[in-house]
Amino acid sequence: MARDNWVPFNERPEWEDLEPVPQDDGPNPVVPISYTRQFRETMDYFRAILKKDERSVRALKLTAEVVGLNSANYTVWHFRRLVLEELGSDLEEELSFMEEIADLNFKNYQFWQHRRWVAEKRGAVAVRDELKYTEIVLQDDAKNYHAWSHRQWVLLNLGGWDGELDYCSKLLSQDIYNNSAWNQRYFVITKDPSRGGLKSMLEPEVSYTLMAIQEAPTNESSWRYLRGLFKDDKATFITRSDVIMVCLQQLADEQSCVHALNLLLDLLSIGYEPSQTDCSALGKALGTWSSLVELAGLLCTRLEELDSIRSRYWAWRRTMLPTVASS
């Protein structure tokens, strides 16, 4: 696929029987594109191959050249798969080809779709290779959507769940702010068929998340993850003393902890009623209040002051306070 030593197609004996098909831009193209000779000739010959639906070794080699010039060309990727199937090609060799072109663009939809196709054809034997490959990509770009999406597809369709939660823990131990790893962790505990679902995983995950919050109180991901653990059981959420305690502890340490204030406001909105001990701690952080609506108003005021970027949102939340049950 090297461009420096490119040989024109009319100088290649193996192509002398094929009539190239030029691109048809119409008689008066408005903005004609000035293609390089290499790109123009390569595409002309690809159109000729495509027109006659030639699924041959030379056609496969030609698709590699086209991909090298434009890796986002979905038509050539599709045709390449047809040729690979027709020839019964060795998919291990196809993986090697993909390794060669990977650096062109790791965020290329067509590249990942093709890799998924290859993995599906290889079956269970591909699991280890695909998980390892995504790990390598994520080492360089921890938030690469395509790599995460591919990894989830592999787990759902080919398996390989055994070490996935440990992998998430490893990533979070390296960077607790890695929101993609938090997302993957939630994916594992809710989708891994061997774990029994969120209900079975709830207690260890709550403990894990509360420790993560204490380690990095400014990390929004862990606070969001905590909410996700109770998204289908709000009645239990408002009674969890450990959740309330971590909020109050953070406010005792730092009264400007936006995420703790935000969670308390959310809890009040779904029915949380502070105990006498909670009231005392909240009074120290927020001042005096006589009803839950007034308490929620104090939270909104504090959030407007501290979170100025979203001040209008908190002002809107204030308009919703009549929906909060008063005491």
Structural features, described:
There is one protein chain. The protein is an all-alpha fold and 327 residues long. Among the domains are: 1-89, no CATH class; 233-327, no CATH class. Helices cover 65% and strands 0% of the residues. Helix 2 (57-69) packs antiparallel against helix 3 (74-87). The chain is elongated.
**What oligomeric assembly is this protein in?**
single chain
Shape: elongated
Share of helix, binned: 55-70%
Note the run of SSEs as H and E: HHHHHHHHHHHHHHHHH
Number of strand elements: 0
What gyration radius follows from the Cα positions, in whole Å?
A: 29 Å
- Percent of residues in beta strands? under 5%
- Mean pLDDT across all amino acids: 93
Low-confidence segments, given as residue ranges, are: none
Sketch the major β-sheet.
none
Structural class, judged by helices and strands? mainly alpha
Distance between the termini: 73 Å
Number of helices: 17
Descriptors:
17 helices, single chain, 0% strand, 327 residues, repeat, mainly alpha, Prenyl_trans_a
Could you give a quick summary of the protein structure above?
Among the domains are: 1-89, no CATH class; 233-327, no CATH class. It is built from 17 helices and no strands. With 327 residues, it is an all-alpha fold.
Helix-strand blueprint:
Elements: H1 37-52, H2 57-69, H3 74-87, H4 91-101, H5 109-122, H6 127-140, H7 145-158, H8 164-174, H9 179-191, H10 197-215, H11 220-229, H12 234-237, H13 241-253, H14 258-269, H15 276-286, H16 292-306, H17 311-319
